[in-house]
Amino acid sequence: MSIIENALKKAAKQGLVIDSQSAETVKLDVANGQGVSEPSLFASGAPNVEVENKVVTDRLVNIDWQALSENGFIDSNNAKSQLAEEFRVVKRPLVNNIQGSENNGINRSNLILICSSLPGEGKTFVSINLALSIANERDKSVLLIDADVEKPNVAKQLGIDNSRGLIEYLEDDTVNFSDILLKTDLPNLSIITAGKRHKFSTELLSSQRMYLFAEEVSRRYRDRIVIFDSPPLLVATQAQILAELVGQVVLVIAAEVTPQSVVNEAVSKLSNCDVVMTLLNKTRKEIDIYGHNYSYGKYGHF
């Protein structure tokens, strides 16, 4: 029995779901007040699209595009840069897995965890660039969640405030999804920051509310790709906890820096994940792949 199934059974016992067999509650349709058979796993009530859009309008944030470009991230004014092309290669197998999830058996394929073995390998750099690259597609929307709650860096890199975020949502049942969602000036990109520091952050990330949150965003927003920037695997237990919630994991490896034994140890902690991909970051030489040269030497330094 999966962790999600266990969480749902616990939720049923606590009255969070009505039908413990189907793990569904009945949500009232906003338009006519009639029952709709759509899953709703939030303890405090799942946000409908109309409410979400209203709140998001009030919580619009502007990304500091100039700072991003200066720090080596994808430049919004240069769609043909080498870095932009490299992330087109990186994102394609992930997107393909999502589009073919009904046939490939990957559960929650639209939830993607970006992690590394150790600090400084560039996972946040990859998380942000991957989110930007996917959000630039016409028919894809992206939710980037900073789940590195001990050392959050996404908000800082994007030039936005680390406002009420994931920790506040997990800590307080009265905080709704729409309360922590930030809409950015890139139309297809939304952000959830890490929120405040908390001494029991590990316990919050492993809580039933977090499991239900992951299930909710995966089921309710099937057209949205959710990217989690996580803590390093070998530094905090939080990354391994988060890896059990997602369908795909990208392990970022610093080229010529991270020992193979460390990578092997990190991979072993991901043995229960459906899909684990590796991304070699910060290499100083070009790599010939199918006749094309790719160099990650211009990646940011952390």
CATH class of the largest domain: Alpha Beta
Q: Topology as H/E string?
A: HEEHEHHHEHEHHHEEHHEHEHEEE
Averaged pLDDT, please?
79
Strand arrangement in the largest pleated sheet:
3-6-7-5-8-4-9-10
**Amino-to-carboxy terminus distance:** 39 Å
Radius of gyration: 19 Å
Number of domains: 2
CATH topology of the largest domain: Rossmann fold
Give the full name of the CATH homologous superfamily of the largest domain. Answer: P-loop containing nucleotide triphosphate hydrolases
Bin the strand percentage: 15-25%
Backbone structural class: alpha/beta
Explain the overall architecture.
- By secondary structure, the protein is α/β, with parallel strands linked by helices.
- The protein has 13 helices and twelve strands.
- Helix 1 (3-13) crosses helix 11 (208-220) and helix 4 (82-99) crosses helix 6.
Quick overview of this protein structure:
The chain has 302 residues and is α/β, with parallel strands linked by helices.
SSE layout and pairing:
Elements (H helix, E strand, L loop, with lengths): L2 H11 L13 E2 L6 E2 L12 H10 L1 E2 L3 H6 L11 H18 L1 H4 L6 E6 L6 H13 L5 E6 L7 H5 L7 H6 L5 H4 L1 E3 L4 E4 L8 H5 L2 H13 L3 E6 L8 H6 L4 E7 L5 H9 L6 E7 L5 E3 L2 E3 L8
Parallel strand pairs: 3-6, 4-8, 4-9, 5-7, 5-8, 9-10
Antiparallel strand pairs: 1-2, 6-7, 11-12
Helix pairs in contact: 1-11, 4-6
Main features:
302 residues; Rossmann fold; 12 strands; 17% strand; ATP-binding; non-specific protein-tyrosine kinase; transferase
